[in-house]
UniProtKB/TrEMBL annotation, chain A:
InterPro entries: Ser_kin/Pase_Hpr-like_N_sf
Name of the protein: DRTGG domain-containing protein
TrEMBL record, chain B:
Transmembrane segment boundaries: none
Coiled-coil spans in chain: none
InterPro entries, alphabetized: PHP_dom, PHP_domain, Pol/His_phosphatase_N, Pol/histidinol_Pase-like
Organism: Caloramator quimbayensis
Protein name: Polymerase/histidinol phosphatase N-terminal domain-containing protein
SMART domains found in the cross-reference section: POLIIIAc
GO terms assigned for molecular function: 5'-3' DNA exonuclease activity; 5'-3' RNA exonuclease activity
Domain named Polymerase/histidinol phosphatase N-terminal: residues: 5-73
SUPFAM superfamilies linked: PHP domain-like
Length: 110, 234
């Protein structure tokens, strides 16, 4: 499944990093401690986090994650959005919380 | 000139700080331990800094007004200022960004305000032991605007540290100095190249009890022994 399919199926909103929406999604990872994510998430994961600091883009880029999903309509810092455009890492917003997102992602087979 | 320092000390205003952490107890213990300068860094507050500065003048030890901010990302950082006015300006910004919740002393501890003679002059009833809605980057830039020093705290610890929570120290910020707790843990970070070696590394106690305050083991070199010169170096 591609990032664009995931967005369409769950009716989510891509806010930046449109250059990466055709990336393949392989599994989901959810954690808010970036050092932990750096050592545990794997290539292709859709990553759910409440962190909106620009470092999330560096982490996603380093691990070649497919996209970042920010739950609960958290406002995202401008610098983070700029960096996501530069790195073509889609940043996706949702009103659901992390648990609800996981359930929905599981239902659509991610 | 070498000066011996401990720039991370809590008073009893921090809910987790011992009730013996009064201005005169702190400055006199620091003096006994042979320190030249300390900083008062309560969680998200500077309200006891002025009393500690005054007590420090009596005891003969330099006291820098500061705060340990908890940023939006749950990262702790020391914010040190040249004077109490700048510290209070910063405190207003932080207070406005804290959730409007009351402290629960039975869960977190009392938040006690002192005058410079250790008299209890009040209780702060805000919930201080929580995250402000100021990001790590915003906090750094705000402190720099006030001509202060912004020092990521206990970067070698697995809680409330910039490296644990944000993966690494953002390199586009004007950060010169970082604080560590244990040399072995700092060395591990340096060896694994998670942190660049070109920062100034200072050790602090993060004292919540009088006996935690450092002895003469952490130092910096300054041209003049003034708060301004110390902040310049940091």
């Amino acid at each position: 499944m591609k990032v664009s399919d995931l967005v369409e199926k769950l009716n989510l909103k891509v806010v930046s990093g449109f250059g990466g929406i055709e990336k393949e999604v392989k599994g989901v990872y959810t954690c808010d401690l970036l050092s932990w994510v750096m050592s545990h998430a794997v290539k292709g994961n859709a990553w759910i986090t409440v962190q909106v600091h620009p470092n999330i883009i560096a982490v996603a880029s380093l691990l070649e994650l497919s996209c970042i999903i920010i739950p609960e309509d958290i406002e995202i810092e401008d610098v983070t959005l700029e960096k996501s455009n530069q790195e073509a890492i889609p940043v996706i917003k949702s009103s659901m919380n992390s648990y609800e997102l996981c359930l929905k992602l599981s239902q659509i087979g991610v | 000139m070498h000066i011996y320092i401990d720039f991370h000390i809590h008073t009893a205003l921090s809910p987790c700080g011992d009730s013996d952490m009064t201005p005169n107890n702190i400055v006199n213990m620091a003096k006994l331990k042979g320190l030249d300068a300390i900083a008062i860094t309560d969680h998200n507050s500077c309200e006891n800094a002025k009393s500690c500065i005054e007590a420090g003048k009596t005891a003969g030890i330099l006291v820098i007004p500061g705060m340990e901010i908890q940023t939006r990302e749950d990262v702790h950082a020391l914010c040190l200022f040249r004077n109490i006015e700048s510290a209070m300006t910063f405190q207003d910004l932080v207070y406005n960004s804290l959730p409007q919740l009351k402290n629960r002393p039975n869960v977190f501890g009392e938040q006690i305000l002192f005058d410079c003679r250790d008299n209890v002059i009040g209780i702060n009833d805000r919930l201080l032991l929580t995250s402000s809605n100021i990001s790590f980057n915003e906090a750094c830039n705000l402190v720099k605007k006030l001509n202060g020093a912004f020092i990521p705290a206990h970067i070698d610890r697995n809680s409330f540290s910039v490296i644990y929570n944000l993966g690494f120290i953002p390199d586009n910020l004007p950060i010169k100095t970082v604080e560590y707790s244990k040399y072995e843990d700092l060395k591990r970070l340096k060896d694994s190249k998670i942190i660049k070696p070109d920062y100034r590394f200072i050790k602090s106690s993060d004292a919540h009890y009088l006996w935690d305050i450092l002895e003469r083991e952490s130092f910096i070199d300054v041209d003049e022994f003034t708060v301004s010169n110390i902040i310049d170096v940091l």
